[in-house]
Amino acid sequence: MPSFKPLLVVAGVGKGGGTGAATARAFAKEGYSIALIARGADSLKSLEDELRASGVEATAFPVTSYEHVSLRSAFQAIRNRYPAQQYSLRAALYNASHWVRKPFLEITPEDIQAITETSINGGFAFAKEVISEYKNNEIDNTDGLGKRGVLIFTGATASVRGNTTTSAFAAGKFALRALSQSLAKEFGKDNIHVSHAIVDGAIVTPQGREQFNNPPIYDSQDQSLTPEGISAAYVYLAKQPRSAWTWELDLRPAHEKW
Ligand SMILES: *[C@@H]1O[C@H](CO)[C@@H](O)[C@H](O)[C@H]1NC(C)=O
Ligand SMILES: *[C@@H]1O[C@H](CO)[C@@H](O)[C@H](O)[C@H]1NC(C)=O
């Protein structure tokens, strides 16, 4: 057993019913303490309360934006709350996302700015904080693991394919994928594991049901992804030993047409 308490940081928790929150719960079950970063302070607080009620050391770090200064101060607060003598950041998920689906000529400068903030500025800033932290970690050799930490990015079909209404969304997701691949190559030799997951299909969340007017696919796990299914894959990535690492994973429900 390692001598430190492993810590997971998740950015992008939304309303607490999606992939970010499910990942926090799944890593908590694996014995991780949890740092939650998101823009919605209220939902962050309720997830923090829920995790604490089940005995998990969880702390919410609300941010006003995903710009570098905000993420920097969130990480400073994380280091104060979870000091390095006792805790060790070992897993990180960048799940923040901004959804735009519009024909190209309707896309506004504000849409582009929001995409740039979440998928580019935020992705770079988050990765910089996490990797700087990982560089100081000892290699964890428990069960031949051989890594200093795992950094996972949530992608989408739009990470690899543009389409009629996804010019803005896909541009951001392509950027995030390019970042994750570059980081995987640059930091693999430091035993830092960087991964990108292409989530291909609708994810069942309360917000998704609302946004898309509750289509029947949400009632079938053959046709839609559950946040728990995705988070199980993220735990699997974290547990991969250094001799067989996945950079990119794709996840889709059994009946997805692709
Ligand atoms: C987390 O990732 C999923 C899948 O891409 C996305 O639907 C969701 O909006 C993301 N959460 C946040 C808070 O951005
Ligand atoms: C591309 O967009 C069209 C029109 O919105 C849609 O019918 C199709 O399913 C999309 N293709 C993919 C691969 O998402």
Automatic annotation (TrEMBL):
It holds the Pfam family adh_short. It comes from Collybiopsis confluens. It comes from the Eukaryota. This is NAD(P)-binding protein.
